[in-house]
Design a protein that fits this description.
Elements: E1 7-14, E2 19-24, H1 30-43, E3 52-54, E4 58-65, E5 68-75, H2 80-97, H3 104-109, H4 111-121, E6 122-123, E7 126-127, H5 132-140, H6 144-192, H7 195-207, H8 221-240, H9 254-261, E8 273-285, E9 291-304, E10 312-318, E11 325-328, H10 334-340, E12 342-343, E13 358-367, E14 375-384, E15 387-396, E16 402-410, E17 419-423, E18 426-430, E19 435-443, E20 449-456, E21 467-473, E22 480-487, E23 497-509
Parallel strand pairs: 8-23
Antiparallel strand pairs: 1-2, 1-5, 3-4, 4-5, 6-7, 8-9, 9-13, 10-12, 10-22, 11-13, 14-15, 15-20, 16-19, 16-21, 17-20, 18-19, 21-23
């Protein structure tokens, strides 16, 4: 049906054939394109150096991009040299719009930007004569009039917010004054029916005119204290609005001091330079024991708030990290990182971009060594009569703490909660999902091992698989630490904030 020499579609797919982004350049049904993309992983042979594969009707021209494939689907009459040139340009565009982090999350997040970029490169199935810089210029399409219009709109929004704050402040002041006046009149009405006691109350009012709420006497003293604290709170509110208010020195107890201190109790401002170290784990354990595969993917991200702090270099300390592969951002000086462990730009006179996070270092590790898994799970199910008895245990193999550990055991068809005879931690049963969740808030050196025993009225040990595991940690498997951050121009130390986090993307026992 596609007789012309054209590119039928440009796509980014996972290694299982899942389409993340796909742009068709000829009329094609969704079922047709999904079928072509799903068939692609089966056609790609392992260990081959070819960048294309053909079927009876179409040709796939592809390039691996870490855990994904960048793919062109063309008809067999298409010029493969031109297709390879198109693929080369697309392979530069994808990292550019994904902030150099080409994975499923970033591709999905920037899907529309990628589609617009694909449209600038390929038109009606044919490659346009454009460069990467031209593609960026065409897709951004910055307009001075649009920028000016947005500034005017933002100015109007800010003015409206100021008016709202001013009106709200006036309303609050009116409420405070009304309440204070009502309390003052209450004291005067008590004078009319209290004889000489009322005169004493009047004397109290004259002696301390700034505290009219204290006009009551006798048994009401306890209640008056509570009202005085409320009045003090109103006074402090007036002070916060910039009003000059005098208060009775006798009312300045610990509570009043706490109220006065509250407006200044703000959290300290975050540092302008923020470094984030994050790792994701993908683990597949065998239900009979042993590790099928574990993959670790990590990223060091740099985010700078103020432009004046963007002339920096990051000194890192790395352990042996056997099996780990490291990759720096294209603008980072690779030789400087390899020789001295310093992450800095190739051109020391340039500054890091401010205002958005930038991945400066990535690492990856894949292993089948079971001792490398931070948490091993062993399960022994057995059948007796019409019941299945299960004993499951965990063992932490690393020295760091694991937080919010959840081991989810599927129990399809089981409506009643299982009979749990022994458990280290807590459990929760969700009958709608048919899942038993074993929860351990923290695994540290005091509880590196734990177990749970339960039984279910189903004589089938296979229904409890696959077991899903989730946890997080403030440490990473990769031995990587930030030693210092210095100014790239004068070498002076720079202040920075650091966050380290490891989480599970997928952890199954099956």
């Amino acid at each position: 049906p596609f007789s012309r020499m054209v590119v039928l579609a440009a796509s980014v797919v996972s290694k299982t054939g899942k389409a993340l982004v796909s742009r068709q350049f000829v009329e094609m049904t969704r079922i047709r394109i999904e079928g072509l993309l799903a068939a692609f992983p089966k056609l790609v042979g392992t260990g081959k150096q070819h960048t294309y594969v053909e079927t009876e009707n179409v040709r796939y021209v592809y390039q691996p991009m870490e855990t994904l494939y960048l793919l062109l689907i063309t008809n067999k009459q298409s010029n493969i040299l031109e297709d390879l040139d198109t693929l080369r340009l697309l392979s530069k565009v994808v990292p550019e719009y994904c902030q150099q982090m080409v994975d499923e999350d970033t591709v999905s997040k920037n899907a529309f930007d990628l589609i617009f970029a694909f449209d600038e490169i390929i038109s009606l199935g044919h490659k346009e004569n454009v460069t990467l810089q031209q593609v960026k210029t065409y897709t951004e399409m910055e307009s001075h009039e649009e920028r000016l219009h947005k500034m005017i709109i933002q100015s109007k929004i800010n003015d409206t917010k100021d008016v709202m704050k001013r009106k709200a402040s006036e309303i609050d002041k009116a409420k405070v004054e009304k309440k204070l006046e009502s309390k003052g009149f209450g004291g005067m009405s008590a004078l009319g029916g209290s004889g000489m006691g009322g005169m004493g109350g009047m004397g109290g009012m004259r002696g301390s005119s700034q505290a009219p709420a204290k006009a009551s006497t006798g048994p009401k003293k306890g209640m008056v204290l509570g009202k005085t604290q409320k009045t003090n709170a109103f006074m402090e509110a007036l002070k916060a609005e910039g009003e000059a208010v005098e208060t009775d020195s006798r009312s300045k107890g610990p509570a009043a001091g706490a109220v006065a201190a509250a407006p200044g109790a703000f959290a300290p401002p975050a540092e302008s330079v923020q470094i984030s170290i994050e790792e994701k784990l993908v683990v597949a354990l065998k239900k009979d024991g042993g590790l099928e595969n574990m993959e670790v993917q990590g990223t060091m991200t740099l985010e700078i708030e103020n432009e004046e702090d963007s002339f920096i270099r990051v000194h890192v300390e790395q352990g042996q990290n056997r099996g780990f592969q490291f990759k720096t951002h294209p603008n980072i000086d690779k030789s400087l990182h390899a020789s001295e462990g310093i992450l800095g730009l190739k051109d020391a006179s340039r500054a890091f971009p401010a205002g958005s996070p930038l991945g400066i270092l990535k690492w990856r590790m894949q292993t089948r060594d079971e001792s490398a898994v931070p948490l091993s799970i062993n399960c022994w199910p057995s059948v007796s009569g019409n019941e299945c008895y299960v004993s499951i245990e965990y063992e932490a193999t690393q020295e760091f703490d694991l937080h919010n550990v959840v081991i989810a055991i599927p129990m399809p068809g089981v409506r009643d909660a299982p009979n749990v005879s022994q458990i280290d931690g807590d459990f929760r049963f969700d009958p709608r999902k048919g899942v038993l969740e074993w929860e351990i808030e923290l695994i540290d050196s005091s509880n590196k091992n734990g177990s749970m025993e339960f039984s279910i009225p189903v004589p089938d040990p296979d229904i409890i698989f696959p077991i899903e595991v989730a946890f997080s940690s403030k440490a990473t498997l990769c031995d990587l630490k930030v030693a210092t951050v210095v100014n790239s121009q004068d070498g002076t130390p720079a202040k920075y904030g650091l966050k380290t986090h490891m989480a599970v993307e997928s952890f199954q026992v099956a």
